[in-house]
């Protein structure tokens, strides 16, 4: 009966602590090698530390379409905004939803960050509308003649008024360069002979074409009088007035719009119902036309879009100015209002006074499509690289102060045991740093200021685990046991306490990560990660190191500076002697 008891290892005993140390050493080497292999030697920094812009967008409900603000449309908008920003070459941009109606866009400081900021909230609702009337957009255009003449037949009055509006009635190419911010032409339909086209138009305008959509202009129904009045009073130089133009207007309705011409002057339009929209554009891109030495935006239509475009250009090519124009309306603003000289179909190009940035910007927006919702910019926060560096420095200083205080406490109170705690903290720091560096390219994790705060809090959590274990060992020594048995007997009790404590911390971090968004998630993620690493370090590093050092004379003899001196701990020698006498469990040995 005695032999089995002699052979039993005490609860919590660890026969070969070297295996655990080798395992965690291999993990550290592998993670460090992974950093060099990935070329990511530092953690990726967030906007508040590296500098950049954070934009908060709020989805707006259109009248009668309140249900449009739903999870599906919000996720679709996130995907489109992300593709737009990444399409500009902005690396490491973040787009995510916040709550039910908000989208947070983080744009790092970079070459194209300003363009990306312009694109994120652009709805990109694109429509091709026939032009009914166009006039100068400033407040000094009270004359109703342009609107009245648009209703139909007084062609002579209209012809005399149009040049005042920046749309000469002579050469179509001349008027095209003054109406709209850009000019659109078919790739297969260059304006090679503008003069013959102009001479033919008076003849074709008397054909059955007047019965088409563009002909019934504002004065053809009672509502047109109000529209004419609004058109006359419209001041396109007023940003607030421009912002109200698209409110509540359906694509199937006649609309007012504003746009800039090639010399940067505002013009105002009365536009017919939309006949082609952005969904009919298959692809668009800004590129340099080598022959003409100018930047253009090319568009390719879908099969159904090509048919629609062919229909509208075929009809407009038989009208006279300005009713032979169609306006390209992007988010309520006319970006181009070209004249049509002949029927176009599958392809078109927008030309004009584009720069490289503006051409590529417009092509990118058109290519990636329209957002399913309209968004209003709620806030824009820009952090300079200098300010981000200051915040990072402040966070590191706070972490260093916290670590120093923990180390001082451990040295003063636990003396030699502080060496084990410091080594464990170093192991935890190496694992945390390498994992954070690899998570940047892996899952897009960015270390922001709240995440740094989470790492600082984790110092206390990790130190708490060491303290729990050290106190359990001291309790065993107070009961009269020597160090080696005390280390093994204290481990099961300390292990349970550490696991329960870390589980509570990890649960709190997980809940915080799920119910919050944005920067607070960085705090929760870092706290949860470091809590898991605390368990790994305590099990695979702290306990094995403690087992090995317990065999050393400095600790085993209870040196006063070891932190395990029985006299300082209040151990009772008689209790230790009585334990030694009663240790045998075999009756024969007793």
Strand order, sheet with most strands: 4-7-6-12-11
Sheet-strand content, in percent, reads 15-25%
Q: Let me know the largest β-sheet.
A: 5 strands, mixed, barrel
Distance between the termini: 13 Å
Please provide the count of β strands: 14
Helix content: 40-55%
**Would you identify the regions where 5 or more consecutive residues have pLDDT less than 50?**
1-7, 140-220, 574-579
- Put simply, the count of helices is 21
Give Rg in angstroms.
38 Å
Write the topology of this structure.
Blueprint: H1 2-7, H2 17-38, H3 47-50, E1 52-60, H4 71-87, E2 94-98, E3 102-108, H5 113-120, E4 126-136, H6 145-149, H7 155-161, H8 172-178, E5 182-185, H9 194-204, H10 222-233, H11 239-243, E6 255-260, E7 266-271, E8 276-277, E9 281-289, E10 294-301, H12 303-316, E11 326-330, E12 333-336, E13 347-354, H13 356-368, E14 374-383, H14 385-414, H15 417-443, H16 449-478, H17 483-515, H18 519-549, H19 553-556, H20 566-569, H21 573-581
Parallel strand pairs: 6-12
Antiparallel strand pairs: 1-3, 1-14, 2-3, 4-7, 4-8, 4-11, 5-13, 6-7, 9-10, 10-13, 11-12
Helix pairs in contact: 2-15, 2-18, 4-5, 14-15, 14-16, 15-16, 15-18, 16-17, 16-18, 17-18
């Amino acid at each position: 009966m005695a032999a089995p008891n002699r052979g039993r290892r005490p609860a919590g005993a660890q026969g070969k602590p070297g295996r655990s140390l080798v395992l965690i050493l291999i993990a550290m080497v592998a993670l460090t090698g992974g950093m060099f292999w990935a070329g990511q030697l530092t953690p990726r920094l967030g906007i508040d530390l590296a500098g950049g812009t954070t934009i908060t967008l709020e989805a707006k409900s259109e009248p009668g379409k309140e249900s449009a603000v739903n999870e599906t449309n919000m996720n679709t908008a996130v995907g489109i905004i992300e593709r737009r920003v990444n399409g500009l070459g902005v690396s490491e941009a973040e787009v995510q939803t916040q709550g039910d109606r908000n989208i947070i866009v983080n744009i790092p400081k970079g070459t194209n960050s300003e363009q990306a900021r312009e694109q994120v909230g652009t709805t990109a609702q694109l429509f091709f509308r026939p032009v009914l009337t166009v006039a100068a957009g400033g407040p000094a255009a009270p004359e109703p003649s342009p609107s009245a003449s648009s209703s139909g037949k007084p062609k002579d009055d209209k012809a005399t008024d149009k040049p005042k509006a920046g749309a000469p009635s002579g050469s179509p190419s001349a008027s095209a360069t003054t109406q709209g911010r850009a000019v659109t032409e078919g790739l297969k339909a260059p304006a090679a002979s503008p003069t013959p086209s102009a001479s033919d138009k008076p003849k074709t305008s008397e054909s059955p074409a007047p019965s088409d959509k563009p002909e019934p202009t504002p004065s053809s129904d009672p509502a047109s009088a109000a529209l004419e009045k609004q058109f006359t009073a419209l001041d396109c130089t007023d940003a607030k007035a421009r912002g109200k133009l698209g409110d509540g207007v359906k694509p199937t309705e006649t609309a007012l719009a504003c746009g800039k011409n090639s010399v940067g002057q505002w013009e105002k339009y009365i536009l017919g119902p939309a006949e082609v929209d952005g969904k009919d554009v298959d692809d668009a891109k800004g590129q340099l036309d080598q022959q003409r030495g100018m930047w253009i935006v090319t568009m390719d239509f879908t099969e159904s879009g090509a048919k629609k475009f062919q229909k509208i250009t075929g009809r407009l090519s038989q009208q006279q100015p300005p009713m032979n124009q169609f306006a390209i309306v992007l988010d309520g603003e006319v970006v181009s209002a070209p004249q049509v000289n002949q029927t176009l179909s599958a392809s078109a190009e927008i030309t004009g006074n584009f720069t490289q940035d503006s051409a590529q910007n417009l092509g990118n927006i058109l290519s990636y499509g329209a957002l399913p919702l309209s968004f209003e910019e709620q806030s824009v926060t820009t952090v300079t690289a200098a300010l981000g560096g200051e915040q990072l420095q402040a966070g590191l200083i706070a972490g260093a102060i916290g670590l120093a205080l923990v180390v001082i406490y451990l040295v003063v109170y636990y003396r030699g045991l502080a060496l084990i705690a410091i080594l464990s903290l170093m192991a935890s720091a190496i694992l945390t740093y390498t994992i954070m560096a690899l998570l940047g390219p892996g899952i897009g994790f960015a270390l922001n200021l709240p995440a740094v705060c989470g790492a600082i809090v984790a110092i206390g959590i990790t130190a708490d685990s060491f303290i729990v274990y050290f106190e359990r060992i001291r309790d065993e020594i107070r009961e009269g046991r020597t160090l080696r048995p005390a280390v093994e007997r204290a481990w099961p009790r300390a292990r349970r306490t550490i696991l329960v404590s870390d589980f509570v911390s990890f649960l709190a971090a997980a809940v915080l990560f799920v119910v919050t968004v944005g920067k607070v998630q960085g705090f929760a993620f870092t706290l949860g990660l470091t809590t898991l690493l605390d368990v790994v370090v305590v099990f695979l590093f702290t306990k094995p190191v403690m087992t090995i050092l317990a065999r050393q004379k400095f600790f085993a003899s209870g040196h006063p500076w070891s932190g395990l001196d029985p006299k300082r701990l209040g151990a009772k020698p008689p209790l230790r002697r009585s334990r030694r006498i009663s240790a045998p469990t075999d009756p024969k040995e007793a």
